[in-house]
Amino acid sequence: MLLTQEQQEILNGSRGETMAKVMETLVRYGELYDADAMIPVTGKYNHLVTSFGLKALTPVYELMDQLIAEGAVSGTKFSADPRPLDKNVPSSFLQNIIFNHFMYSKQDFYEDQLQKLGLMEKDAFTCTCYMDEVGNTPGKGDILSWSESSAVVYANSVLAARCNRNSGIIDLMGAICGFVPRFGLLTDEGRKAKWIVEVRTTKKPEAQLLGSAIGMKVMEDVPYIKGLDKWLGSLDDDAKAYLKDMGAATASNGAVGLYHVAGITPEAVEQGEDLILPDAQVYVIDDAELKRVYDSYPVIWKNKEATPKLCFMGCPHMSLHQLIDWTERVEQGLKAAGNKKVVIPTVFTAAPAVIEKFNATPYAARLKETGVILSYICPLMYMNNPLSAKMPVITSSNKLRTYTSARYYTDDEILAQITKGGN
Ligand code: F3S
Hints:
Blueprint lengths: L4 H7 L5 H16 L5 E3 L5 E3 L9 H12 L8 E3 L12 H11 L3 H11 L31 H9 L10 H10 L1 E3 L11 E7 L7 H12 L4 E4 L2 H4 L4 H17 L6 E2 L4 H6 L4 E10 L1 H9 L14 E9 L1 H18 L8 E5 L1 H8 L3 H8 L2 E3 L3 H5 L2 H4 L3 E3 L2 H6 L3 E2 L2 H10 L3
Parallel strand pairs: 2-3, 5-6, 5-8, 6-7, 9-10, 9-12, 10-11, 12-13
Antiparallel strand pairs: 1-4
Helix pairs in contact: 2-7, 3-5, 6-10, 8-10, 8-12, 13-15, 13-19
The chain binds FE3-S4 cluster (F3S).
The site of FE3-S4 cluster has 12 residues, from strand 9 and helix 16.
């Protein structure tokens, strides 16, 4: 791999032994993928996913302590993935013991470390760091060192920044060192599509289902999606939220790091079908294919007929626009069902900065009136333990469905379940 004089000097210890090890790790990681060079991280901010305050990840805290002690802190400030705990989210006595004393007992310590390492601001905890309210929105062509898969795929696809799907620790090292190895999605060639996805549905496809179908088919390859512009129109707030949810499903049900949408995403608008590799395979998605995908999801609840105890919406975190839209939908659903409050405890999750903005609108009181709880947590962190796993939880997130026992329903089905019960 070609190293600049500066990079070679760092490797030789010009910025201390720890930074030399960080650089060596990145160089070796790059060599595994035939990277040709180390290139500067150019995004204004980084985004980290390290440990969520998990007690089990002691080596990560030790590594971070070492980095702080030796002054090897990020020159660039960063946001981080969501906090795991919020007392407003319903939980049992036993769950609270597990969350507070076993799973996330290091959260305060972890947040203190992040402050020292360069957290953007004290509440910069969200997976949707790219939202305007949060302010970590990379520009076109920015080189990033991120690892949150839903944020990476959004930054690459919707913002045309450049980032590989890194592990959390490689992400941290790239952010600290300020360089990342160039391969894969950082190269023009790596951003070309190996798949053409033709959307031929009779109505706007459910974002989470479409993303799931694409992810399971193309896995880690880049798809070029045709026929979706008909349903999205332009890259407005609605379309951005749609692509956020679709992308998270492509990234979790498969391992997609970048997709292009004809007529919508920046590179597809600029380069059109030049982005498609000559031998690209074709995947047609129609109503029947989406139904097939939906029907293929296993329901791993012990009692498949159980009444849901909790509903999570907002994985990835909801946008301001989605919160407003869903406030109206829940109100209308309740009115039609003759109910005043949601009949299943329901939690909407969003970035702290988005919640703050939402709370300044009249919709906040209206949502509260419906009984829906608004939180900043990561629902996956709530679900990821044996007690929560036994709960019948429903969600409209295909990412949450994939990683936990939560059961997936479409948006309309979720609305019916929480406003009148059943679907
Ligand atoms: Fe975000 Fe947690 Fe879902 S980080 S994408 S809310 S799993």
